[in-house]
């Protein structure tokens, strides 16, 4: 009993915390903070994202107080600000600490890094001026600049050693600065601290640029909304809208919340959310996203999501989570750099000792060269090469309505050799229409009435089509009981005492044999690209219903785009072979038909044996296949399932976006390869020039700072792909 009480007390002290870590704007920063937090008792589930500067973790406050955790981070040189839970807040009065912190994109000169850089820069300039005015001071004029830099970065280096990061760039730079002062190279020491400060500042500016692209999404949500209250519409903060309330969206207004149109017709520009460049027609029953721009007519919209949970808020959250996840390449580079830096330090020590002790070489010369090698050992540019490109690629995709949930998924998409598509709702519009009613007994109305009774309440596209046709024809809905679905086979229910089934032709034959089922008529309808269901009553066929689901307008072009990229397209459908082949011929895809959900899994496994494969589906019925593929891509228009089930989601519901995903992935991987080549290439060049005495200390630190800036700017080029 005592143990149980203790466990409950421990759980009661555990909290999930979110912080903004100001200044944590590079992968090396993330590594330092993570290493320090792993040594904090009671800290667990640590997640860090340098692009958003957000830290998430669970903390057992009975073991470690929250204040001590915050102090640990502060000792590393970062500012810590608690964050709330809200993602989007749309009015000034209601803005809380989360947005106040998230909007912290101050001018570079007012940031701590900016102030340190300016101070050191002023001291360096003053030192050179003093040397010019009083040559006798030349050897000491730049010492103050070096000492100020050493005080700032050296203190941080000591804190990092205590936190478990002995080989930090701050430590390497501090040792090089102390060594330069020791051998009388004050000018070199000042140059090292100034260039290091400038490099850190540029990293922060570049990270802020990358953040701004995603944060700009939050500004799309209007700050106020017109809430309909009786016969009037009054202006209220959009952040305070509640689910179920009705708002008025006038032509030219931005939609203030995710919702459903209950009155009016208009065209809405949803490009900021879905990437769809053409305004989308909206009518009663249509969904709208917060941030969309109403173009033509007034709409009344029922709110379906609060500000904290709207589509834009979820996009920002998912992108932040995706940027925080590490790709396989990033993990490999981290492992490599963990060995690379100690190896370079060992080479630097040998460079100092071996020539001087073995052949009596000049100590000053080889200490100088050893210190330069220390600076070349800084792994910042190398560590940054992959996450910077991955984060830019994910952000670029989000701007186009392509949500990619992590670096691993972004890497894998570009390697796929086969794309497997579901048919209904993916290659086709997912809105089949009843085209033919073929009663075998009774009338068309009685046939339609039985089918509608069984399908009533179902969200399946075929069920919806049958119910819409029944409503259009004025066929009353009969009561049904014991309704259930047999996946891939039939929908069942008891109507007027009879077991009625709306079944696939194959299942109908299994139930009652081929007698009475007009196979020739079914074949003719299927050859026209139509889906045929057989309505059975007590296992006896009473009629056929044919439906047709037209391909998406961009499906042909989307498949052609994949073909140009060397990617094969295959359609996996539970529909019959004739219908599948008819649709497939028009689109130019291979077809695997008559598949039950478990059959799709086998097909995915067979395709994976031939190479990496992606599965594209609606995120609902295809969840097992989406999970079984190397990459699962959901067509979902912002639904919960589309945003949360698969590895990637296409908010715009465009088949052509699959090819765009592949191109973005390949561009990102090419960018990563370029970055790695730049980082390692520059270090290799400077390694040789340092050993031969051609490189000064300031050029050595510039090798790392310059490479970091080049790698960052190269990664930011990917953001153009989102425009």
What does this 3D model show about the protein?
50% of the residues lie in helices and 19% in strands. The protein has 723 residues and is α+β, with helices and mostly antiparallel strands. The protein folds into five domains: 2-104, Alpha-Beta Plaits (2-Layer Sandwich), CATH 3.30.70.100; 110-214 and 319-391 and 667-722, no CATH class; 222-309, Calcium-transporting ATPase, cytoplasmic transduction domain A (Distorted Sandwich), CATH 2.70.150.10; 400-429 and 551-666, Rossmann fold (3-Layer(aba) Sandwich), CATH 3.40.50; 433-548, 3-Layer(aba) Sandwich (Calcium-transporting ATPase, cytoplasmic domain N), CATH 3.40.1110.10. Strands 14-26-25-24-15-22-23 form a seven-stranded mixed sheet, sandwiched between helices. A hairpin with a 2-residue loop joins β20 (531-537) and β21. The longest helix is centred in the last third of the chain and has 36 residues, at 656-691. The protein starts with a helix and ends in a 7-residue tail after the last helix.
Kindly summarize this structure in a few lines.
By secondary structure, this protein is of the alpha+beta class. 50% of the residues lie in helices and 19% in strands. A hairpin with a 2-residue loop joins strand 18 and strand 19 (498-503).
């Amino acid at each position: 009993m005592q143990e149980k009480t203790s466990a409950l007390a421990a759980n009661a002290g555990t909290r999930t915390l979110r912080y903004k870590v100001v200044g944590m704007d590079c992968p090396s920063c993330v590594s330092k903070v993570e290493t320090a937090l792993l040594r904090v008792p009671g800290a667990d589930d640590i997640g860090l994202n340098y692009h958003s500067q957000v830290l998430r973790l669970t903390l057992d406050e009975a073991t470690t107080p929250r204040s001590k955790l915050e102090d640990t981070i502060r000792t590393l040189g970062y500012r810590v600000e608690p964050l709330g839970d809200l993602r989007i807040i749309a009015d000034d009065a209601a803005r809380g600490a989360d947005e106040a912190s998230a909007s912290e994109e101050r001018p570079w000169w007012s940031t701590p890094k900016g102030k340190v850089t300016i101070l050191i820069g002023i001291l360096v300039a003053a030192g050179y001026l003093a040397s010019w005015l009083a040559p006798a001071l030349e050897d000491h004029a730049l010492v103050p600049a070096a000492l100020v830099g050493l005080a700032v970065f050296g203190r941080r280096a000591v804190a990092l050693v205590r936190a478990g990061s002995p080989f930090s760039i701050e430590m390497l730079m501090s040792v090089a600065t102390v060594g330069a002062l020791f051998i009388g190279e004050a000018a070199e020491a000042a140059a090292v601290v100034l260039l290091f400060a400038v490099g850190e500042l540029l990293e922060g500016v570049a990270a802020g640029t990358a953040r701004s692209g995603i944060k700009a999404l939050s500004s799309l949500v209007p700050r106020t909304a017109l809430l309909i209250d009786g016969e009037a519409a009054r202006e209220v903060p959009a952040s305070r809208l509640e689910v179920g309330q009705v708002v008025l969206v006038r032509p030219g207004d931005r939609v203030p919340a995710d919702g459903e149109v209950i009155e009016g017709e208009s065209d809405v520009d949803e490009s900021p959310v879905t990437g769809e460049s053409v305004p989308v027609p909206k009518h009663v029953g249509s969904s709208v996203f917060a941030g969309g721009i109403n173009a033509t007519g007034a709409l009344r919209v029922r709110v379906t999501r609060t500000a904290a949970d709207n589509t834009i808020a979820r996009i920002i959250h998912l992108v932040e989570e995706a940027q925080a996840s590490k790709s396989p390449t990033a993990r490999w580079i981290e492992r490599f750099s963990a060995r690379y830096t100690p190896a370079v330090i060992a080479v630097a020590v040998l460079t100092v000792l071996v020539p001087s002790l073995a052949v009596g070489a000049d100590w000053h010369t080889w200490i100088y060269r050893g210190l330069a090698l220390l600076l070349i050992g800084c792994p910042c540019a190398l560590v940054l090469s992959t996450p910077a490109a991955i984060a830019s690629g994910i952000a670029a995709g989000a701007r186009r309505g392509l949500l990619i949930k992590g670096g691993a998924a972004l890497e894998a998409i570009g390697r796929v050799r086969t794309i497997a598509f579901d048919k209904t709702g993916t290659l086709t519009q997912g809105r089949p229409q009843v085209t033919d009613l073929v009663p075998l007994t009774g009338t068309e109305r009685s046939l339609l009435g039985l089918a509608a009774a069984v399908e009533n309440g179902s969200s399946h596209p075929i069920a919806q089509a049958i119910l819409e046709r029944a409503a259009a024809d004025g066929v009353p809905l009969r009561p049904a009981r014991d309704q259930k679905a047999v996946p891939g086979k039939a929908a069942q229910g008891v109507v007027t005492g009879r077991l009625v089934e709306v079944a696939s032709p194959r299942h109908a034959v299994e139930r009652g044999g081929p007698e009475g089922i007009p196979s020739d008529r079914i074949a003719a309808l299927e050859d026209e690209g139509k889906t045929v269901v057989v309505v059975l009553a007590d296992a006896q066929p009473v009629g056929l219903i044919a439906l047709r689901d037209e391909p998406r307008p961009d499906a042909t072009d989307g498949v052609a785009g994949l073909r140009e990229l060397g990617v094969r397209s295959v359609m996996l459908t539970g529909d019959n072979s004739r219908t599948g082949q008819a649709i497939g011929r028009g689109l130019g895809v291979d077809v695997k038909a008559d598949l039950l959900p478990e059959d799709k899994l086998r097909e995915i496994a067979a395709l994976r044996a031939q190479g990496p494969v992606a599965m594209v589906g609606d995120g609902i019925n295809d969840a097992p296949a989406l999970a079984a593929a190397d990459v699962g891509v959901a067509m979902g228009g912002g639904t919960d399932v589309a945003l949360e089930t698969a590895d990637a989601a296409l908010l715009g519901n465009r088949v052509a976006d699959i090819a765009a995903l592949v191109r973005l992935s390949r561009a990102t991987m090419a960018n990563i390869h370029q970055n790695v080549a730049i980082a390692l290439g520059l270090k290799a060049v400077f390694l040789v020039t340092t050993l031969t005495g051609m490189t000064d200390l300031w050029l050595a630190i510039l090798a790392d700072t310059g490479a970091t800036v080049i790698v960052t700017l190269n990664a930011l080029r990917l953001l153009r792909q989102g425009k």
